[in-house]
Amino acid sequence: MNERWAEASTSQGGWDTELIDRKHAWLHLLQVSVGEVEQDEPSSAMLPSRAMLPPHPDEAQVVLDVNRSFGIYKQTKEESVMKARRRQLQAVIQGTLRKYPTLHYYQGFHDIASVLLLTLSPTLPEEGEAWPGAEDRHVVQWSLDKISLHIVRDSMSSNMDPILGQLKIVRNLVRAADLPFALAIERAFGQSQILVALPWVLTLLMHEVGDLHSAQCIMDFVLSHGPASIHYLCATLILWHKESLADMATKQGGRPIEYLDMAQVHHVLAEIPPLDADELRFALLTQAKQMFHSYPLRCPAVHAHTILANTSVLFTDSPFCSDTESLRYAALPGSAHVLDIAATPQADHDQVKEKFMPVARVPRVLLLQRMLPFLSRRNSAHFVLATWLSLFFGGSVLSVLLAAQLASYP
């Protein structure tokens, strides 16, 4: 069933065309059972018990963010609807933070919670009521708990270290797909990470999408492919801007992309196309899925396991990771989840280039003059064979020198 949902999330028309019950599928993927919720936390005690817990230190920021939420969705344009939804949103975010005080709220988490709320509780409560029914508040609350513990836990760490690691993974994905373009934008950003992807990772793109249906389709993809899937979406969006940056460079005198101003590059990359258009959204999800299968996290091109530790949410998203285990990881300092988050923009590339630059500057005639006496002492038959093999496999002058050295052996 999970494979069917994952496949359908990138099909033309998505889950709606496949007639998939989104609420049922999300609850299944998040491992939320209505029956278990009602048994574990009865409706008479569930939310009141959380409300009675000590306030979380981040609740002041929650209130500020909630007060500016739901302004982009047509479903919440009416003032009365917006107020009711904001009360629900504040209650569930505070409920999660109070139950799991080791989690840290961040700006953008409310965007994820907003989409979750409108999807799992689409019916408005009656006047004077907070929720349409006990089941709605149960499933929204528990689903937000699950997303916090198993999807965006790294974002809710004590510091930004795990997210810097995730941005490095996005960079590696761009490198794997298009190395020259990746090195160009890395040079433009200097020693910084590709920070344009920061809000995309933190909000799972929920803040960047202006309509609820498109946000739901992206969430379908993320929930059915796991927390790492957002990085493939981010890398795809960055790659989409290659032509735009090339055009900008051409207009500025034909300079290479890497010599563009960082602010200009950031501005271009930050412009996300309107994903409410079905064709664009389908293209984004399809290309991200192709990259997802071509470059797994642990492949040599990405080597995410050398960037983030096994305690990162990227490596603990299996169904066998319990809430208790996830909460134990959440209690660790952010630095405990990282191994190597340094930006290191094209450092290796530059070192290799500088190492061989002197050889590249040596005039060919002078190089040949110095080589001739050396070559005359080599086994000519072996040398010819070794040189031919070297050039056949894409060798250069350095390869010829190596061939000469090898030819000296009997």
From TrEMBL:
<dbReference type="Pfam" id="PF00566">
    <property type="entry name" value="RabGAP-TBC"/>
</dbReference>
<feature type="domain" description="Rab-GAP TBC">
    <location>
        <begin position="22"/>
        <end position="244"/>
    </location>
</feature>
<dbReference type="InterPro" id="IPR035969">
    <property type="entry name" value="Rab-GAP_TBC_sf"/>
</dbReference>
<keyword id="KW-0812">Transmembrane</keyword>
<keyword id="KW-0472">Membrane</keyword>
<dbReference type="GO" id="GO:0006888">
    <property type="term" value="P:endoplasmic reticulum to Golgi vesicle-mediated transport"/>
</dbReference>
<dbReference type="InterPro" id="IPR000195">
    <property type="entry name" value="Rab-GAP-TBC_dom"/>
</dbReference>
<protein>
    <submittedName>
        <fullName>GTPase-activating protein gyp8</fullName>
    </submittedName>
</protein>
<keyword id="KW-1133">Transmembrane helix</keyword>
<dbReference type="GO" id="GO:0005789">
    <property type="term" value="C:endoplasmic reticulum membrane"/>
</dbReference>
<dbReference type="InterPro" id="IPR045913">
    <property type="entry name" value="TBC20/Gyp8-like"/>
</dbReference>
<keyword id="KW-0343">GTPase activation</keyword>
<feature type="transmembrane region" description="Helical">
    <location>
        <begin position="383"/>
        <end position="404"/>
    </location>
</feature>
<dbReference type="GO" id="GO:0005096">
    <property type="term" value="F:GTPase activator activity"/>
</dbReference>
